[in-house]
Design goal:
By secondary structure, the chain is α/β, with parallel strands linked by helices. The chain has 21 helices and 21 strands. Helix 9 crosses helix 10 and helix 19 runs parallel beside helix 21.
Length: 574
């Protein structure tokens, strides 16, 4: 059995060893975005070629840009892949070991690719295999084309899909409830990679604010992004926030640029990426960034033939910002990206995880990532679940009205082209009237920090000014210090309303109760402790009445006490 070559990361060496120990036709490796799946796969390919187990390589990727990226990476392993191969070519040049193609390319002529696979001892590398769902054109195509392959190496950073279609060449096993779940041969999750320093810790900078819009019936509506309202109202408030002509998105872009400036003190070439929903807003965001920074942003549009070149130039340069229409969400490797703005209304778990994955690739110890996003409930939940390990589950109930249920074929269409007027909101007459931004909180490691504040306030700058070079433990400690300082400042800061007439600030109480509830939920998820028991223990330790009757000081004390549990991993720490 071959030994792993020097220079591999520990997980890559372990996966390499397991691959050649199992020596099965199919092998599924799940590794978090940014961990180095490409290096692992090409090391396996290089070894199989050297051992003459295979004599040709097929790489299948979701996009044209990714197949060129694979070809460039393969060249460093002395493997020649043709990323320009077209179905009409019939065969690739003799000087190449194989080709890099897209799933769509295979699906359009599966028998052509089957013939090429049968013509030699072929290794097929299926990048982001979760896109190959059974009964969808891509899944049918790769199953037909690559069934004769000698070896199939499947890779994914997000082993879950929005639907329940089986993925070709993936093994499924029933769990305790009888639900079949995908079985990976090697798993390297975000939590593992974070502990190993392979990926960066991610701070989510959440921004709320008040929104006002006019509905299709001509009624004026208003809501806050973080308000507990219906999904429809949240969606329209979210859409209002992302409108480039309001005040919310320019304020958030300016905050993100301030964060980027802080990061660049320690990481001079750090870059930022704004993920936009469509071409029109992407151009508007780029214009806003130029006004903020005085420098033109790199604009990447999916219908631009020069898009791949623009991404490569940005990756190799030192420009501050790139704005893209979602096509950069998956697999595209720009290691210097450190700050992101999630300015799209797409909210599937797969898309969110892949988007965040653009910022987590670590180049040296201590680099951090910061992702700015609206404080809407679904994004808050996804940010808090970043470290959750997921498997692709079959047999679960399917509700096509669920906003998270999007067949993968449609998801990839959305990710690589301008979003068309396909959803209900786009079909309605809608007019964004006004949007105001406010700093809400920072989410890190399943915990929330910050008491909110105006844009430009000291409360916001406490977190925007966190140094750009810190490991995960240092980030955690510094966030807690800033939180403690903010609570201390508010305790000693006289408020005019109370000083003059003793009026209770009901808005502040509502925000504190909401923050306490979210932190209780986070601790419940981590510890398995019931929500009611958590509240009872906090009340016992901190004193005071139940939450509904607690005053501002009592609520802050409970928040601070609860956050101390995360440090000590339990109530005994208090």
């Amino acid at each position: 059995m071959p030994t792993p070559p020097p220079g591999l990361r520990q997980w890559q060496a372990e996966a390499f060893t397991k691959y050649f120990h199992l020596r099965r036709r199919d092998f599924l490796a799940v590794a978090t975005p940014g961990a180095g799946k490409t290096t692992f796969a090409l090391t396996v390919a290089q070894t199989l070629l050297r051992m003459r187990i295979v004599d040709r390589i097929y790489v299948v990727a979701p996009t044209d840009h990714l197949k060129r990226q694979w070809a460039d990476a393969a060249a460093k392993f002395s493997i020649s892949l043709d990323p320009n191969f077209k179905n009409s070519d019939g065969s690739h040049g003799r000087d190449f070991h194989g080709v890099a193609v897209t799933y769509a390319q295979v699906a359009s002529k599966p028998m052509l690719h089957r013939a090429k696979t049968e013509a030699g001892k072929t290794l097929v590398i299926l990048d982001e295999i979760h896109h190959g769902g059974d009964a969808l054109s891509w899944g049918d195509g790769i199953r037909e084309a690559f069934s004769p392959a000698v070896c199939r190496l499947s890779l994914t950073g997000t082993p879950f899909r929005s639907d329940t279609a089986a993925i070709p060449f993936v093994e499924y096993e029933p769990d305790d409830e009888g639900i079949r779940r995908s079985k990976a041969d090697y798993v390297y999750g975000y939590g593992d990679a974070l502990r190993d320093g392979v990926v960066r810790p991610v701070m989510f900078m959440a921004y709320s604010g008040s929104m006002r819009w006019k509905t299709s019936t001509g009624d004026e509506m208003s809501a806050g992004l973080a308000d507990e309202v219906t999904k429809d109202i949240t969606a329209q408030a979210w859409r209002t926030a992302l409108n480039p002509h309001g005040e919310w998105i320019p304020a958030v872009l300016a905050a993100a640029d301030r964060r980027l400036t802080e990061v660049r003190r320690a990481v001079p070439d750090a870059g930022g990426l704004v993920i936009a929903t469509d071409h029109e807003t992407a151009r508007a965001y780029a214009g806003t960034l130029k006004q903020i920074t005085g420098e033109s942003a790199v604009l990447v549009l999916s219908d631009d033939k020069k898009a791949s070149k623009a991404i490569e130039d940005f990756s190799e340069g030192t420009r501050r910002w790139m704005v893209a229409v979602r096509m950069v969400s998956e697999g595209v490797d720009v290691p210097r990206l450190s700050v992101g703005v999630y300015a799209t209304s797409t909210s599937t778990p797969l898309f969110f995880a892949q988007a965040v994955g653009r910022f987590v690739r670590s180049r040296r110890k201590g680099e951090t990532a910061s992702v700015f996003l609206p404080s809407v409930p679904i994004l808050m939940a996804l940010a808090n679940q970043l470290e959750a390990e997921r498997d692709h589950a079959l047999d679960r109930p399917v509700d096509p009205t669920d906003p998270d249920f999007i067949p993968e074929e449609d998801l990839m269409d959305e990710a690589n082209r301008e979003e068309k007027a396909s959803d209900t909101l786009e079909k309605q007459k809608f007019e964004a009237l006004d949007s105001q931004a406010s700093f809400d909180k920072v989410l890190f490691d399943g915990t929330e920090f910050g008491l909110g504040g105006d844009v430009g306030s000291a409360e916001e700058m406490d977190f925007l000014g966190i140094p750009g070079l810190l490991d995960a433990d240092q980030v955690n400690e510094l966030l807690r210090q800033r939180q403690h300082e903010q609570i201390r400042r508010q305790k000693t800061r006289p408020r005019a309303a109370e000083a003059e007439v003793g009026v209770v600030d009901h808005r502040q109480l509502k925000e504190l109760r909401a923050q306490l509830a979210k932190n209780v939920s986070a601790w419940a998820a981590r510890s398995g402790m019931a929500h009611g028991l958590i509240h009872s223990e906090l009340r016992r330790l901190s004193g005071g009445p139940p939450v509904a009757q607690a005053n501002e000081e009592q609520l802050k004390a409970r928040i601070e006490r609860l956050q101390s549990w995360f440090i000590g991993q339990g109530p005994s720490a208090g």
